[in-house]
Amino acid sequence: LEPPFSHTPNHSLSYWCVLFQGVGGGWIEAQNSRGEVGLVPEDYIELPGGGGNVGHVAAPVAAHAPDLSFFDAFAAPASNGKDPWSVWNQDTTGGSSNNWAAQPEGTITGTITGKSAAPDPWGSTAQSHPQAYQGPGAEDDEWDDEWDDVKSNSESGDGGAIQRGGATGSSMKISLNKFPGFSKSGPELFLLCKQPPKGKEKITIYMGEVGPVWSYPEAQLDCVVADPKKGTKMYGLKSYIEYHVIPNTTNRPVNHRYKHFDWLYERLLDKFGSAIPIPSLPDKQVTGRFEEEFIKMRMERLQGWMTRMCRHPVVSNSDVFQLFLTYKDEKDWKTGKRKAEKDEDVGVMIFSSIEPEAPDLDPIEVEQKCDQFSRFTKAMDDGVKDLLTVGQEHWKRCTGPLPKEYQRIGKAFQNLSSVFTSSGYQGEATLTDAMTSAGKTYEEIAQMVAEQPRKDLHFLMENNNEYKGLLGCFPDTIGVHKAAIEKVKEGDRLVAASKITPQDKVTMAKRVSTMSYALQAEMNHFHSNRIYDYNRVMQLYLEEQVKFYETIAEKLKQAHSQFTTM
Amino acid sequence: LEPPFSHTPNHSLSYWCVLFQGVGGGWIEAQNSRGEVGLVPEDYIELPGGGGNVGHVAAPVAAHAPDLSFFDAFAAPASNGKDPWSVWNQDTTGGSSNNWAAQPEGTITGTITGKSAAPDPWGSTAQSHPQAYQGPGAEDDEWDDEWDDVKSNSESGDGGAIQRGGATGSSMKISLNKFPGFSKSGPELFLLCKQPPKGKEKITIYMGEVGPVWSYPEAQLDCVVADPKKGTKMYGLKSYIEYHVIPNTTNRPVNHRYKHFDWLYERLLDKFGSAIPIPSLPDKQVTGRFEEEFIKMRMERLQGWMTRMCRHPVVSNSDVFQLFLTYKDEKDWKTGKRKAEKDEDVGVMIFSSIEPEAPDLDPIEVEQKCDQFSRFTKAMDDGVKDLLTVGQEHWKRCTGPLPKEYQRIGKAFQNLSSVFTSSGYQGEATLTDAMTSAGKTYEEIAQMVAEQPRKDLHFLMENNNEYKGLLGCFPDTIGVHKAAIEKVKEGDRLVAASKITPQDKVTMAKRVSTMSYALQAEMNHFHSNRIYDYNRVMQLYLEEQVKFYETIAEKLKQAHSQFTTM
């Protein structure tokens, strides 16, 4: 057996044995080296240059890779441990004991990492949050398990994702794309490509006040995700939720289901993932008693995700994103969809579209910048997770023991008041009315305390949760750069070993400079958004906190006014 | 061996054997039926009519009791269980499962109960309160263990209390008085006394708007307990704290030590305890690292006790209380002290001084009133204890986990702020300054939360603690009345058995009416004080709570103003 996915670091997929070819719909049943059985798309196992012939023994798919062993050399450092940060960040991380160690082994690509390493949106104890992710293995969402339905299969082999429980019950997700040689840990594809593809969209980087910046549009794209509606298909056997997505450019709503968002996500990830961290979508969830709550929560998070994508000048300007927001009819959508799925300008090749309007950078400066961003994102990731943990505990207290205590105080006052009422003493009423009222006030405060987190802490948590997801993509985005830097560093050795030409070495240095500009532009985009987001969410949080404490003070003032010392 | 104290319900003191007569200073070493050894005053063990002869075998001290077996008959119902309320309140209490079951067996007299049954001033979990009672068995307070010192002994046989660790290590306290026949459960002493003692002070009861009321003075007596000063004696071997007590009548401070307050307490208990619940003093405590805190706390509680005594028209008008507040010099004090200790108008005989200016009550009405007060005080005792428990838990949360959480939130904000500072991005300062400031605000809030209970909950707790102590005296005060009612009910049987004459029976009915007026006047006094106290303490509590929440809102408003979404 050959190792067809040896260029991907996902060990569980290293060896595949085709078990059954006749599954239909473009799928093949296969078994990996761990004995796990699953479906893989037919075209994924095509031999290089093959035209649809599927062999019983799967061959390497890394057909377009200039040098397979070369790829392995690049892939190695990125898959050598459980902590993707530790590869280039050993000076700042605490080794395997840090949070990143919790990521699944071998999941290196940014988005797979993002999706599978964050089963808990608010840290490991998030289950108690009423809106928190309801546990892993919830792939069978009745609205979303349609990747294998008739309609989807007829559209295949699309570049979707396989989501299947294997024989061991574990699920796996293979990120596919039409450029099979692509690997995020293989930037040499761009560094060494013979000439940039022609007729590309150009992505310009300017020198702004803060350094390299993307080219921002004059009017910022925005959209609203709203009006979730339940639909059914297959004679009511399957139901799903469809959302309106209304861009501010057309003001015309288009309909999308979660699986469309997921499709868009996959496209964006394939296309921009090497240069731009594409945060994963809100997790799929099991449905249950909290359908309303769940739909609201998912919509809120899809809105957050779309807002972030709209705000990104490169992403929002892309054909696939525009298609998603402004398709005219079903036919338009399907045509655009097919076109997007055939886009070969994905993976590290995105850098070939990028044109920095600035002089080439020195490799030392490139490395410094890369290290700086790496340190920063790692530190921020820690800080964000810390805040999430603290917020999580505060949420628990505010919705658990604290309101219970205020309620008991309220009850104790009312209880004493009713004892006093039984005294038979004249002129008791003023005190007992006041004490009952004070007691009720504390019961109201209990209620307020319990409800407050949804009004303020919720948004602080959601914001930080979003940033946790975004930061979780950086190890991979930065990893591409780090790998490129290492490649350039090896330039002399590679020339000496005749792996590359001296001209290749010069080209690589120039191209790594372009990559660095892209990283800097992205970091500056990140920083500016971060500053905006944290200002906004802190304002909102503190505003609601002020209201909360002022309301309590006002209520207590009223309770106070009823007591009288004659 | 004769049972010298059989008329008292304290089993542990039933039998005494004089061990050693030559202790000196008016004391005799004796051993009780449990083998516990302690000192008892010489004159306490005098035989009836004896002139200082002490026998090796102690004889009954109940010399003045008209009929010992008769006394036993009365004593029985009050000592038949662990729950003093259950005797006359079985309809409202839940049997032995209620709080009162926790009282030490056999401690029946109100003040002994008050002192020994309340080792925890704020309920059973009060230890964690920084100012809470620091555990039982703390009798050896270096400032207060002077009942047996040279000076005290030279003043003996005073009517102080013996506080000694017995052979078993347990301590006991004997309430002594100069009227050895006195027992709170023996109201027949008053009901059947031949003629009221002459030349008494009269205590008048009027019919007020709310029913029977004591005669209140025009100007209410008040005093300030202040300026605790450390004094030493015995060449510095012993130190003690002396307080200034300044009555509003003279504005002249007199000096008193804790033991003087304790002496006053004993006098008031002996003299008024059958008619008026005399709350016990703040407990003796071990001293330790918190001397300052302890002195402040004791002073505050002595102040509370004195204020309550000053407010009582009967207590505050008494010679002994006036002596305590206004003695001119040491000689005056000693003279007055000796006189007070020789006062024979104590125990149930206080009722003979009481003159209700209203028609005699029907025994049925007497019983109804008694039951009503009993139910009320029991219910209030439950309510107060409930509030103390709740308050105790709230105190713990406010000084423990809650501020820690706010501190962690504050740290998380500041931590994230310092990460942001490291971004190297321009224009970061406004956000990071604002986030640092918000973080510090939450640390300030943490501090405020931790300190707040001392500003508001403390007074609510102290007030309820005071009421808990006061309510703990009611079972005994009401018990005297209940016993008297039972006595009157037995009137016919006693006449038939020739235990009393028919005239005695008539007299008893009249006198039990007087007792009922006293109880009603006292309950009305209690109610009026209770309404004042609870209004006042709730006002104070809510006022401080309002300030607290307003301050937090104000701080957060300031923190909020530093954020800006440009």
From TrEMBL, chains A, B:
It is found in: Cytoplasmic vesicle membrane. It comes from the Eukaryota. The keyword Membrane applies. The keyword Plastid does not apply. Pfam families: BAR_3_WASP_bdg, PX. GO terms for cellular component: cytoplasmic vesicle membrane; plasma membrane. A 1,2-diacyl-sn-glycero-3-phospho-(1D-myo-inositol-4,5-bisphosphate) binds at residues 257, 259, 298. Keywords: Cytoplasmic vesicle, Membrane, Protein transport, SH3 domain, Transport. Its main location: membrane. Residues 221-331 form the PX domain. It is a peripheral membrane protein. InterPro entries: AH/BAR_dom_sf, PX_dom, PX_dom_sf, Snx9_fam, SNX9_PX, Sorting_nexin_WASP-bd-dom. PANTHER family: SORTING NEXIN, SORTING NEXIN-9. This is Sorting nexin. The gene is snx9b.
